[in-house]
Design goal:
This protein is mostly beta strands and 187 residues long. The protein has one domain (21-184): Phosphatidylethanolamine-binding Protein, CATH 3.90.280. The chain has 2 helices and 9 strands. Strand 4 and strand 5 form a beta hairpin.
C-alpha cells in the first residue's frame, strides 16, 4: 500500500496519454536564451526534415552519427555546438542523444561518424560519451531534433559535461541557431 501515493503522483503528472513525456517546447532550441538573433539552415545528405531516420543512424543499427551541414552563420561566429534531443521519450525532459561543442567556426558541417578536430563531446542522457542513435520503444514515431548553435566564443567545458552544463555555458553566447527534425520508429 505504500506504493499507492507514488503511483497516484505519477498518474497525475503523466498527462492524458498515461505516459510521462516531455514536449518539443522543452528542447534546448526552444529556450529563448539559446535562440540567437539569426537562423541557421540545418540539413543533411542522409536525413530529410520530417522523414524517417535510416536505421544505420539508430542504436538498432550501427549508431553512426549522420552527416549534418549548416549555413547562415553570422559574422563573429567563433564555434558551433550540436545537440540531439528526443522530446517524445517517456520522461519529464527530452532524452539527450548527443552533445558536442567547440566545432571549429570554419566548419559548416559534420561528416558521417566523425568528430571534427578540436570539438568536444559530452555525455548523453544515459551517461555515455558521444553519439547515441535513436532507440525509441515500440509505439509511435519519435521526433529527433538535431540542433546547431553558432557561438560568439569557444566554450570552456570539460569533456563529458552534460546537456544542462552545455546549455548554461551557451546562454548569452548564441548568435544563431537552427534545427533539422527527423523521425524514428521501432520496427
Amino acid at each position: 500500500m505504500r506504493l499507492l501515493p507514488v503511483i497516484a503522483a505519477f498518474a497525475m503528472t503523466a498527462g492524458a496519454s498515461g505516459v510521462l513525456a516531455a514536449s518539443a517546447d522543452q528542447v534546448a532550441l526552444a529556450n529563448p536564451a539559446l535562440k540567437g538573433k539569426a537562423t541557421l539552415q540545418v540539413s543533411s545528405s542522409a536525413l530529410k526534415s520530417g522523414a524517417p531516420i535510416p536505421t544505420v543512424y539508430s542504436s538498432y543499427g550501427a549508431s553512426t552519427s549522420p552527416p549534418l551541414s549548416w549555413r547562415g552563420a553570422p559574422r563573429g561566429t567563433k564555434a558551433f555546438a550540436v545537440m540531439l534531443e528526443d522530446p517524445d521519450a517517456p520522461m519529464a525532459a527530452p532524452f539527450v542523444h548527443w552533445v558536442m561543442w567547440n566545432v571549429p567556426a570554419g566548419d559548416h558541417g559534420l561528416a558521417e561518424g566523425r568528430v571534427p578536430e578540436g570539438a568536444v563531446q559530452g555525455k548523453m542522457g544515459a551517461g555515455r560519451l558521444g553519439y547515441f542513435g535513436p532507440r525509441p520503444p515500440a509505439g509511435p514515431a519519435h521526433h529527433y531534433h538535431f540542433e546547431v548553435f553558432a557561438l560568439d566564443q569557444p566554450l570552456t567545458l570539460d569533456a563529458g559535461a552534460d546537456a544542462k552544463a552545455l546549455e548554461t555555458a551557451m546562454a548569452g553566447h548564441v548568435l544563431a541557431s537552427g534545427e533539422l527534425v527527423a523521425t524514428y520508429q521501432k520496427q
